[in-house]
Design brief:
Layout lengths: L7 E7 L3 H12 L8 E8 L5 H5 L5 E5 L5 H11 L4 E5 L3 E3 L3 H8 L4 E6 L7 H14 L11 E4 L13 E5 H6 L13 H8 L4 E11 L5 H19 L7 H20 L1 H22 L5 H28 L4
Helix pairs in contact: 5-11, 8-11, 9-10, 10-11
Protein backbone atom coordinates (compact mmCIF):
# COMPACT_ATOMS: atom_id res chain seq x y z
CA UNK A 1 0.00 0.00 0.00
CA UNK A 2 1.40 3.41 -0.94
CA UNK A 3 2.14 6.06 1.64
CA UNK A 4 0.61 9.52 1.09
CA UNK A 5 2.89 12.19 -0.29
CA UNK A 6 2.79 15.00 2.24
CA UNK A 7 5.05 17.94 1.29
CA UNK A 8 5.40 19.58 -2.11
CA UNK A 9 7.57 22.17 -3.83
CA UNK A 10 5.60 23.62 -6.73
CA UNK A 11 7.97 24.97 -9.38
CA UNK A 12 6.79 27.48 -11.98
CA UNK A 13 9.39 28.10 -14.73
CA UNK A 14 8.45 31.24 -16.62
CA UNK A 15 9.81 33.43 -19.38
CA UNK A 16 7.78 36.54 -20.23
CA UNK A 17 4.64 35.01 -18.77
CA UNK A 18 3.00 38.15 -17.40
CA UNK A 19 -0.17 37.51 -19.41
CA UNK A 20 -1.16 34.39 -17.43
CA UNK A 21 1.00 34.49 -14.29
CA UNK A 22 -1.69 36.04 -12.07
CA UNK A 23 -4.18 33.29 -12.86
CA UNK A 24 -1.54 30.60 -12.40
CA UNK A 25 -0.30 31.83 -9.01
CA UNK A 26 -3.79 32.50 -7.67
CA UNK A 27 -4.65 28.86 -8.33
CA UNK A 28 -1.43 27.60 -6.75
CA UNK A 29 -1.35 29.68 -3.57
CA UNK A 30 -5.09 29.00 -3.14
CA UNK A 31 -4.67 25.23 -2.93
CA UNK A 32 -6.90 23.52 -0.36
CA UNK A 33 -3.91 22.03 1.36
CA UNK A 34 -2.06 22.92 4.58
CA UNK A 35 0.08 25.97 3.84
CA UNK A 36 3.02 24.64 5.82
CA UNK A 37 3.17 21.54 3.63
CA UNK A 38 3.89 23.21 0.31
CA UNK A 39 5.75 26.08 -1.26
CA UNK A 40 5.60 27.79 -4.64
CA UNK A 41 8.91 28.59 -6.34
CA UNK A 42 8.76 30.89 -9.37
CA UNK A 43 11.86 30.66 -11.55
CA UNK A 44 12.04 33.78 -13.71
CA UNK A 45 14.09 32.69 -16.71
CA UNK A 46 15.42 36.11 -17.72
CA UNK A 47 12.03 37.70 -18.41
CA UNK A 48 11.87 41.20 -19.86
CA UNK A 49 8.19 41.85 -19.05
CA UNK A 50 6.39 42.29 -15.70
CA UNK A 51 6.85 38.68 -14.61
CA UNK A 52 9.02 39.44 -11.57
CA UNK A 53 6.80 42.31 -10.43
CA UNK A 54 3.69 40.13 -10.61
CA UNK A 55 5.33 37.22 -8.77
CA UNK A 56 6.48 39.54 -5.97
CA UNK A 57 2.83 40.24 -5.09
CA UNK A 58 2.26 36.63 -4.04
CA UNK A 59 3.55 34.53 -1.11
CA UNK A 60 6.00 32.67 -3.32
CA UNK A 61 9.75 32.30 -3.53
CA UNK A 62 11.14 34.12 -6.57
CA UNK A 63 14.36 32.88 -8.15
CA UNK A 64 15.64 35.12 -10.95
CA UNK A 65 18.03 33.98 -13.68
CA UNK A 66 20.02 36.80 -15.32
CA UNK A 67 19.58 35.45 -18.86
CA UNK A 68 17.06 33.26 -20.66
CA UNK A 69 18.43 29.71 -20.51
CA UNK A 70 15.39 27.67 -21.52
CA UNK A 71 12.90 25.52 -19.66
CA UNK A 72 15.31 22.68 -18.86
CA UNK A 73 17.74 24.98 -17.04
CA UNK A 74 14.93 26.88 -15.29
CA UNK A 75 13.33 23.71 -13.95
CA UNK A 76 16.70 22.33 -12.87
CA UNK A 77 17.35 25.49 -10.88
CA UNK A 78 13.92 25.21 -9.30
CA UNK A 79 14.50 21.56 -8.41
CA UNK A 80 17.76 22.40 -6.67
CA UNK A 81 16.22 25.34 -4.80
CA UNK A 82 13.19 23.33 -3.61
CA UNK A 83 12.73 22.76 0.12
CA UNK A 84 10.77 19.53 -0.28
CA UNK A 85 11.55 16.29 -2.08
CA UNK A 86 8.32 15.90 -4.07
CA UNK A 87 8.27 18.36 -6.96
CA UNK A 88 5.24 19.65 -8.84
CA UNK A 89 6.17 21.34 -12.11
CA UNK A 90 3.46 23.73 -13.25
CA UNK A 91 3.87 25.87 -16.36
CA UNK A 92 2.66 29.45 -16.32
CA UNK A 93 -0.24 28.75 -18.70
CA UNK A 94 -1.54 25.90 -16.51
CA UNK A 95 -4.32 26.61 -13.99
CA UNK A 96 -4.74 23.62 -11.64
CA UNK A 97 -7.86 22.73 -9.69
CA UNK A 98 -7.67 23.83 -6.06
CA UNK A 99 -7.50 20.22 -4.86
CA UNK A 100 -4.46 19.28 -6.97
CA UNK A 101 -2.08 18.77 -4.05
CA UNK A 102 -4.72 17.06 -1.91
CA UNK A 103 -5.55 14.49 -4.59
CA UNK A 104 -1.89 13.85 -5.46
CA UNK A 105 -1.09 13.43 -1.76
CA UNK A 106 -3.89 10.91 -1.27
CA UNK A 107 -2.96 8.98 -4.43
CA UNK A 108 0.50 8.51 -2.95
CA UNK A 109 2.34 7.79 -6.19
CA UNK A 110 4.87 9.54 -8.36
CA UNK A 111 5.63 10.13 -11.19
CA UNK A 112 2.17 11.30 -12.19
CA UNK A 113 0.63 13.54 -14.85
CA UNK A 114 -2.73 15.12 -13.94
CA UNK A 115 -5.23 15.45 -16.74
CA UNK A 116 -4.65 18.62 -18.77
CA UNK A 117 -7.81 20.21 -20.14
CA UNK A 118 -6.40 21.94 -23.19
CA UNK A 119 -8.52 21.68 -26.32
CA UNK A 120 -12.11 20.57 -25.74
CA UNK A 121 -13.05 20.47 -29.41
CA UNK A 122 -15.48 23.36 -29.23
CA UNK A 123 -15.42 26.42 -31.42
CA UNK A 124 -13.55 26.97 -34.64
CA UNK A 125 -10.00 27.87 -35.64
CA UNK A 126 -6.84 26.63 -33.97
CA UNK A 127 -8.59 25.37 -30.83
CA UNK A 128 -10.60 22.90 -32.90
CA UNK A 129 -7.67 22.07 -35.18
CA UNK A 130 -5.30 21.09 -32.35
CA UNK A 131 -8.05 19.02 -30.75
CA UNK A 132 -8.53 17.10 -34.01
CA UNK A 133 -4.78 16.65 -34.40
CA UNK A 134 -4.39 15.25 -30.88
CA UNK A 135 -7.33 12.90 -31.33
CA UNK A 136 -5.57 11.35 -34.33
CA UNK A 137 -2.07 11.29 -32.88
CA UNK A 138 -2.98 9.91 -29.45
CA UNK A 139 -6.01 7.67 -30.01
CA UNK A 140 -7.30 5.90 -27.95
CA UNK A 141 -5.72 7.77 -25.03
CA UNK A 142 -7.00 11.24 -25.93
CA UNK A 143 -9.17 12.83 -24.71
CA UNK A 144 -9.09 11.33 -21.22
CA UNK A 145 -12.30 11.80 -19.25
CA UNK A 146 -13.11 11.27 -15.60
CA UNK A 147 -15.19 8.26 -16.67
CA UNK A 148 -12.16 6.66 -18.34
CA UNK A 149 -10.13 7.22 -15.18
CA UNK A 150 -6.43 6.69 -15.66
CA UNK A 151 -3.79 4.71 -17.48
CA UNK A 152 -0.10 3.93 -17.15
CA UNK A 153 2.51 5.22 -19.56
CA UNK A 154 5.08 2.48 -20.10
CA UNK A 155 7.84 1.70 -22.57
CA UNK A 156 5.29 -0.20 -24.67
CA UNK A 157 2.85 2.69 -25.21
CA UNK A 158 5.21 5.62 -24.66
CA UNK A 159 5.23 7.02 -28.20
CA UNK A 160 1.46 6.70 -28.60
CA UNK A 161 0.37 8.15 -25.26
CA UNK A 162 -0.20 11.88 -24.69
CA UNK A 163 2.31 13.18 -22.20
CA UNK A 164 4.17 16.28 -21.14
CA UNK A 165 5.52 18.20 -18.20
CA UNK A 166 3.24 21.25 -18.22
CA UNK A 167 1.85 19.82 -14.96
CA UNK A 168 3.95 16.98 -13.63
CA UNK A 169 4.73 15.43 -10.25
CA UNK A 170 7.82 13.43 -9.34
CA UNK A 171 10.55 13.07 -6.74
CA UNK A 172 13.57 15.34 -6.87
CA UNK A 173 16.10 12.52 -7.26
CA UNK A 174 14.06 10.95 -10.06
CA UNK A 175 13.86 14.30 -11.87
CA UNK A 176 17.55 15.14 -11.59
CA UNK A 177 18.55 11.64 -12.74
CA UNK A 178 16.41 11.93 -15.89
CA UNK A 179 17.79 15.14 -17.36
CA UNK A 180 19.22 15.15 -20.90
CA UNK A 181 22.93 15.73 -21.41
CA UNK A 182 22.20 18.76 -23.57
CA UNK A 183 20.15 21.43 -21.78
CA UNK A 184 19.89 23.75 -24.79
CA UNK A 185 16.66 25.52 -25.73
CA UNK A 186 16.21 23.29 -28.81
CA UNK A 187 16.53 20.04 -26.86
CA UNK A 188 13.33 18.08 -26.27
CA UNK A 189 12.40 19.46 -22.86
CA UNK A 190 9.83 16.86 -21.88
CA UNK A 191 9.80 13.72 -24.07
CA UNK A 192 13.47 12.83 -23.52
CA UNK A 193 13.08 13.31 -19.77
CA UNK A 194 9.93 11.21 -19.55
CA UNK A 195 11.40 8.49 -21.76
CA UNK A 196 14.37 8.10 -19.44
CA UNK A 197 12.08 8.13 -16.43
CA UNK A 198 9.67 5.49 -17.71
CA UNK A 199 12.55 3.05 -18.16
CA UNK A 200 12.55 2.58 -14.39
CA UNK A 201 8.99 3.49 -13.32
CA UNK A 202 5.68 3.74 -15.19
CA UNK A 203 4.09 7.19 -15.26
CA UNK A 204 0.51 7.47 -14.05
CA UNK A 205 -1.81 9.60 -16.19
CA UNK A 206 -4.91 10.34 -14.10
CA UNK A 207 -8.15 12.25 -14.49
CA UNK A 208 -8.80 12.22 -10.73
CA UNK A 209 -7.61 15.82 -10.77
CA UNK A 210 -7.03 18.16 -13.66
CA UNK A 211 -5.60 21.49 -14.71
CA UNK A 212 -6.76 23.90 -17.39
CA UNK A 213 -4.29 24.93 -20.05
CA UNK A 214 -4.77 28.47 -21.35
CA UNK A 215 -4.68 27.88 -25.08
CA UNK A 216 -2.93 29.91 -27.71
CA UNK A 217 -5.63 30.47 -30.31
CA UNK A 218 -4.56 33.73 -31.94
CA UNK A 219 -2.43 33.26 -35.05
CA UNK A 220 0.17 35.75 -33.76
CA UNK A 221 0.75 33.48 -30.74
CA UNK A 222 0.31 30.12 -32.48
CA UNK A 223 2.96 30.69 -35.15
CA UNK A 224 5.97 31.50 -32.91
CA UNK A 225 5.02 28.82 -30.39
CA UNK A 226 4.66 26.19 -33.12
CA UNK A 227 7.98 27.26 -34.62
CA UNK A 228 9.68 26.85 -31.22
CA UNK A 229 8.19 23.39 -30.79
CA UNK A 230 9.58 22.22 -34.15
CA UNK A 231 13.22 21.71 -33.08
CA UNK A 232 12.19 20.08 -29.79
CA UNK A 233 9.92 17.64 -31.57
CA UNK A 234 12.66 16.85 -34.08
CA UNK A 235 15.25 16.33 -31.35
CA UNK A 236 13.39 13.24 -30.17
CA UNK A 237 11.10 11.98 -32.93
CA UNK A 238 13.12 12.70 -36.09
CA UNK A 239 16.49 11.29 -35.13
CA UNK A 240 17.50 7.88 -36.46
CA UNK A 241 15.29 5.31 -34.76
CA UNK A 242 12.66 7.88 -33.82
CA UNK A 243 8.96 7.27 -34.40
CA UNK A 244 8.77 9.56 -37.43
CA UNK A 245 12.32 9.21 -38.78
CA UNK A 246 11.31 7.07 -41.77
CA UNK A 247 8.51 9.47 -42.70
CA UNK A 248 10.84 12.45 -42.34
CA UNK A 249 13.52 10.84 -44.50
CA UNK A 250 10.88 9.97 -47.08
CA UNK A 251 9.67 13.58 -47.25
CA UNK A 252 13.20 14.82 -47.86
CA UNK A 253 13.65 12.18 -50.55
CA UNK A 254 10.42 13.23 -52.25
CA UNK A 255 11.33 16.93 -52.14
CA UNK A 256 14.77 16.31 -53.64
CA UNK A 257 13.33 14.02 -56.32
CA UNK A 258 10.59 16.53 -57.19
CA UNK A 259 13.12 19.34 -57.57
CA UNK A 260 15.34 17.21 -59.82
CA UNK A 261 12.41 16.10 -61.97
CA UNK A 262 11.14 19.66 -62.20
CA UNK A 263 14.46 20.81 -63.58
CA UNK A 264 14.49 17.97 -66.08
CA UNK A 265 10.91 18.47 -67.25
CA UNK A 266 8.45 21.10 -65.93
CA UNK A 267 5.58 18.69 -66.53
CA UNK A 268 7.07 16.27 -64.02
CA UNK A 269 7.36 19.13 -61.56
CA UNK A 270 3.66 19.89 -62.06
CA UNK A 271 2.85 16.24 -61.43
CA UNK A 272 4.76 16.37 -58.15
CA UNK A 273 2.84 19.52 -57.18
CA UNK A 274 -0.41 17.74 -57.99
CA UNK A 275 0.61 14.85 -55.75
CA UNK A 276 1.28 17.30 -52.92
CA UNK A 277 -2.21 18.74 -53.32
CA UNK A 278 -3.66 15.24 -53.22
CA UNK A 279 -1.78 14.51 -49.97
CA UNK A 280 -3.05 17.81 -48.54
CA UNK A 281 -6.64 16.91 -49.44
CA UNK A 282 -6.19 13.48 -47.90
CA UNK A 283 -4.85 15.03 -44.69
CA UNK A 284 -7.90 17.30 -44.48
CA UNK A 285 -10.24 14.31 -44.68
CA UNK A 286 -8.12 12.21 -42.31
CA UNK A 287 -8.01 14.84 -39.56
CA UNK A 288 -11.66 15.87 -39.84
CA UNK A 289 -14.26 14.13 -37.68
CA UNK A 290 -17.21 15.78 -39.41
CA UNK A 291 -17.67 17.66 -42.65
CA UNK A 292 -17.64 21.11 -41.05
CA UNK A 293 -14.14 20.34 -39.77
CA UNK A 294 -12.80 20.33 -43.33
CA UNK A 295 -12.59 24.15 -43.68
CA UNK A 296 -11.01 24.36 -40.20
CA UNK A 297 -8.27 21.94 -41.21
CA UNK A 298 -7.94 23.55 -44.65
CA UNK A 299 -7.15 26.94 -43.09
CA UNK A 300 -5.13 25.90 -40.04
CA UNK A 301 -3.08 22.99 -41.40
CA UNK A 302 -0.93 25.07 -43.81
CA UNK A 303 -0.18 27.66 -41.11
CA UNK A 304 0.84 25.07 -38.54
CA UNK A 305 2.71 22.95 -41.09
CA UNK A 306 4.80 25.89 -42.34
CA UNK A 307 5.65 27.16 -38.83
CA UNK A 308 6.42 23.66 -37.56
CA UNK A 309 8.35 22.79 -40.71
CA UNK A 310 10.51 25.89 -40.46
CA UNK A 311 11.30 24.98 -36.87
CA UNK A 312 12.32 21.49 -37.99
CA UNK A 313 14.39 23.00 -40.80
CA UNK A 314 16.19 25.14 -38.23
CA UNK A 315 17.00 21.95 -36.30
CA UNK A 316 18.15 20.17 -39.48
CA UNK A 317 20.47 23.02 -40.45
CA UNK A 318 22.03 22.97 -37.00
CA UNK A 319 22.55 19.21 -37.33
CA UNK A 320 24.28 19.64 -40.69
CA UNK A 321 26.48 22.39 -39.28
CA UNK A 322 27.32 20.26 -36.26
CA UNK A 323 25.69 22.60 -33.76
CA UNK A 324 23.58 21.51 -30.80
Amino acid sequence: MTEPLSHFSVIVPVFNGAETLDACLEALVGQKYPQERFEVVVVDDGSTDETAAIASRYPVRLVRLPHNRGRIEARMRGAREARFETLVFNDVRVIPENNLLKVISERGYEPVIPEIRDYDGSGWGFARFFYLLRCRLYAPYYPLSRERGEFWITMENFDRAPKGTTCFVCGRDRWLASQPDDAGRDTSDDTRILRKMVQTSPILRTSAVSARYLQRTDVSAVIPHTFERGPRFADYYLRSGGRYFALYAGIWGFVILALLLGRMDPRLGMSAAGLCLAVYAGAMVYLSRRWRDVPVVAVCLPVVAVAFGLGILKWQIRQVLGKR
